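In this section we walk through a basic example: taking a raw amino acid sequence and producing a predicted 3D structure, encoded as discrete structure tokens. The instruction is simple. Fold the sequence below.
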Amino acid sequence: MTVPPLPLPEHPLRRRLNDELHARPPVVLTGPTWVTHLVMLHDEGGSPADAGAEEVHLRRLCDLAQSPFCPVIDGNHWILEAGDLRLKWERHNEFSSYTFFRQQRADDGPQATALDAFPADWRSGIPGRLLVATHLDYRDASEGDGQQATLLAELAQSAVPWVVTEVADGAALVASDFRIHDGFTRYLVLDRQLRRRQSGRTVQRLLEIETYRMMALLAFPVAKEVAATLARAEQETAALMAEMAEDRGHTSERAILSSLTRLAATVELSITRSAFRFGAAEAYYALVRQRVKDLRGHPVPGFSSIHGFLDRRLAPAIQTCLSVARRQNDLSGRIARKSALLRTRVDIELEHQNQELLTQMNRRSHLQLRLQETVEGLSVVAITYYASSLVHHLAEGLERMLHGPDPALATAVSIPLIALAVAVGVRRMRRKLTATEVSH
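The resulting token sequence is shown next.
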């Protein structure tokens, strides 16, 4: 009985989010198999054009295989099975992985790989830059090199130290030297009693460990470069602080503040450029540790285990990256605090200078007021003088025409009156101007 769908509006991402739980399933291995795993880094940013180039290249493989059935590339996961061609493709944010599978045959030579079934010109045209290349030999424990004891004895006598671990609670044996030979690292997986789907999960975890450990290590060269920059920045910061402690005056403090600002910009630029790489390294390393834990491995006497090997070799490099990231952020905070302290000192000095300037301005204003009062007095005298002269001339004219009062007497009487009137007028004008300035 088919249940009708609910008559409710569906979120556009509902199916995509649900299908994410079923993405990237492990490929089931049905017997001894050659496996080759390639990881290709995208160009900076991983543009849609890069994804389009990968899809075109995968469709070209379908055409070369002349397969009547070619799966549709929908999303970031794709599996092709056509005769001897068996390929699993996955696209991630920074890289794409290509995992090739081929059943082992009795006539395979010692140099046989999973890539033998794929056209050489197609393999050489895979888009991206190669970061990881791994050959994995998956075989039954009872075949090939014979007894496990013989194989372990050969590995123990090898000049190169091998890492050997029992995984899946002893259901399989994994061996690798984690070194690049002819361009590839190599794994050997001996299946003791792995279940059908358990074999695919085990191989997938091993390949993911190889992928994520290399992706995590991309931050190590960045950490070395940043560490050199930080060493110079820390030395310069210490020198500036020593100069700041000498207290050479506000001119020196402003120069130190300018240097600290430039140094802060340099450190922030370094943080901006490296923050993503360091954060990605931490995330990839967490995935490596989780995959190692999922293997449920146990050490084999006389050999290093995968867990122990990665703890000794990979963990210090990642801790260096994380330490540089913390050191970088710590230096940025210290420079910010020192800049704030110095800026406070400069502000206090400026306030002190402003206070002295205001005091000087206040003194000048008092002096100007006194000068103004003196000028006002002189102005009263000058106006009185000119006004009394006018009165004197007027009185002389009246005396000749009308035999008026004596000009000298009239002038003498007018002088105090004129002086009083001018003084009162000047004072009222000054009060009016002062009241206008206060109101504004």
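Looking at the output, two observations stand out. The first strand starts at residue 33 and ends at 41. Residues 373-435 form one domain. In the next section we compare this with other chains.
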